[in-house]
């Protein structure tokens, strides 16, 4: 379920020895870019799931270090406005189904 998020974190961390990352405050804005319902059987709407594509604008602080603890990227004293686009989905035919992350869209 969280493999997309975990893979994204691993990808970012593999570039540097260590990373300081901080979400400064709750999201500045969250906007729905797309909402859709997808059916597995066009004759049975109970066998469907929904997808939401959301854009998150957040303030973040970031700084990356090499193995000598030298700064190689970013500046943790500066806030940066970051735009992320994530796709979430939820089954409509499984009682108690949770929303899950199914993709991150890179621009």
Summarize the structure in words.
The protein is mainly β and 107 residues long. The chain has one domain (3-105): Nuclear Transport Factor 2, Chain: A. 10% of the residues lie in helices and 53% in strands. It is built from one helix and six strands, in the order αββββββ. It has one helix at 3-13, and strands spanning 18-23, 29-39, 48-65, 71-74, 80-91, 100-105. Strands 1, 2, 3, 4, 5 and 6 form a six-stranded antiparallel beta sheet that branches. A hairpin with a 5-residue loop joins strand 3 (48-65) and strand 4 (71-74). The two termini are 23 Å apart. The mean pLDDT is 87.
Specify the CATH architecture: Roll
Share of residues in helices: 10-25%
CATH topology: Nuclear Transport Factor 2, Chain: A
Order of helical and strand elements: HEEEEEE
User: Largest sheet, described in full?
Assistant: 6 strands, antiparallel
What is the structural class?
A: mainly beta
Radius of gyration: 18 Å
Poorly predicted tracts of residues: none
Fraction of residues in β-strands? over 45%
Number of strands: 6
N- and C-termini, Cα separation: 23 Å
- The tally of structural domains comes to 1
DSSP helix count?
1
Protein name: Large ribosomal subunit protein mL45
Subcellular location: Mitochondrion
Organism: Aegilops tauschii subsp. strangulata
Keywords: Mitochondrion, Ribonucleoprotein, Ribosomal protein, Transit peptide
